[in-house]
């Protein structure tokens, strides 16, 4: 499996390109900037075809590149059905936090807990993990979890934005994310990757 991360905005947001192998279809998870040219260069280098755009949640720094990727590839945008309703607020966030004026079209595909997103030979399972946002979701695929801003290396996502809840995020982590094996690798929305074993030992929020 190919997993490549890109940090393309001032908030340090991770965008991921995920594919089963070179020369096949791929998903772009959380396109994070208006200028996605490094992603396009990687796509060309590995002869990939963008077939899916997946947002782990609605926040502006995770959706800023939706239109650039969609215009270049005609790939549909996937988001949890709850967060899809918040998307107009992301335009305000983009201007406030990144100084970017961007019109965001509605998502193409609204998903929910348990849905499967097929990207070539890869099957992403949607796990509804609210707390950072009401419709935040984690994507499970082949021993990996793309956790968005729910669980990150050494910390958790903030819960003071619209739709956030500390109780919900802790429930999402304890009951859903930590249900996966310790060796599961997490790829978060900010910061480096980790494993669930490392987070159980080192993340202070999991010691509470």
From TrEMBL:
Entry-linked CDD domains: metallo-hydrolase-like_MBL-fold
Cofactor: Zn(2+)
Residue ranges annotated for the Metallo-beta-lactamase domain, each copy included: 12-190
Keyword annotations: Hydrolase, Metal-binding, Zinc
InterPro entries: MBL_Glyoxalase_II (IPR051453), Metallo-B-lactamas (IPR001279), RibonucZ/Hydroxyglut_hydro (IPR036866)
One Pfam family recorded for the sequence: Lactamase_B
Database matches in PANTHER family: HYDROXYACYLGLUTATHIONE HYDROLASE GLOC (PTHR46233:SF3)
Name the record gives this protein: MBL fold metallo-hydrolase
């Amino acid at each position: 499996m190919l997993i490549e991360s890109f940090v393309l905005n001032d908030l340090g947001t991770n965008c991921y390109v995920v594919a089963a192998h070179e020369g096949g279809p791929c998903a772009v998870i959380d396109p994070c900037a208006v200028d996605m040219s490094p992603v396009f260069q990687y796509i060309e280098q590995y002869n990939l075809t963008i077939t899916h755009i997946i947002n782990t949640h609605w926040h502006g720094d995770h959706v800023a590149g939706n239109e650039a990727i969609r215009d270049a590839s005609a790939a549909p945008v996937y988001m949890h059905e709850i967060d899809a309703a918040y998307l107009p607020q992301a335009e305000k966030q983009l201007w406030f936090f990144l100084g970017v004026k961007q019109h965001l079209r509605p998502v193409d595909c609204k998903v929910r807990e348990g849905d499967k997103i097929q990207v070539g030979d890869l099957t992403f399972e949607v796990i509804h993990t609210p707390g950072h946002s009401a419709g935040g979701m984690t994507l499970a695929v082949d021993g990996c979890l793309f956790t968005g801003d729910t669980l990150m290396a050494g910390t958790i996502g903030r819960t003071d934005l619209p739709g956030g809840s500390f109780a919900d995020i802790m429930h999402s982590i304890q009951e859903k994310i930590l249900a996966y094996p310790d060796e599961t690798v997490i790829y978060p929305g900010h910061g480096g990757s980790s494993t669930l074993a490392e987070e159980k030992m080192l993340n202070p929020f999991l010691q509470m």
